[in-house]
# Entry
Amino acid sequence: MDKGGIILKSYKYRLYPNKEQKERLVETLDTCRHLYNTSLGSRKLQAELYQLPIAKQWITVKTQSKSLPVQKKHDKYSCVIG
# Structure
C-alpha cells in the first residue's frame, strides 16, 4: 500500500507453542497488561489531580520509564522489563 511515497509492509506469523511456552506467553502478556494498566491508571489519576492547583507537573512517559528499574525488582515485572 502506498501512502505518500512510503510503502508499508507487514508480516503475519503463526505460533504453535507447546504447553510450557503457552504458559510463559500468558504470564508475560498478563504482566505487560498489568504494567500498562497500572501506568495508565497513574496518568489518569494525575490528570484528575492536575485540575487542582496542588499538582504542578504531569506524569510523563519519560518519568514513568525512569521508574521501570525500580519496578523490575518486583518479581512480577522482572520477566518483561529488560
Q: What stands out?
A: The first strand starts at residue 2 and ends at 3.
